[in-house]
Amino acid sequence: MAPSKEQMDEMKEAFTLYDIDRDGLIPSSHVGSVLRSLGVNVSDAELTKLSSELGDAIDEKKFMNFAKFKLNETESEEEFVKAFTVFDADNSGYIETAKFAEYMMTLGEKLPEHEVQLMVQEADPTNSGSFNYHEFVQRIMAK
């Protein structure tokens, strides 16, 4: 989904605040701070990659494109988390691993057991019997 006009305005305003010398550029080292000030999650690895591709500074157009991409990614992450809340009866943030596997094989588009087992291993790598679905979604989205 495309960012709203309000979100676009906020991104431009944030860029302008960090463009201290008004040359249309901000230091690549500040991109993470700008995005996080907008509530956009960005990993250090992504910032390192962006900096290596763009050099020491980023212009407004490239910043806006990257910010829109990350904003859409964040919204997708929130949608995944929201989908998991349906199975979190006690609102604990955790889902039982066995029930998760059962849901994946029986509800909606039924997944083959071997695919479900791969998902279960990713969701609950320590075999604790339950997993934090917020963390699971973050790991999946980071790949």
Automatic annotation (TrEMBL):
It comes from the Eukaryota. This is Myosin I light chain Cam2. It comes from Schizosaccharomyces octosporus (strain yFS286) (Fission yeast). One of its GO terms (cellular component) is myosin II complex. Residues 6-41, 75-110 form the EF-hand domain. GO terms for molecular function: calcium ion binding. Pfam families: EF-hand_7.
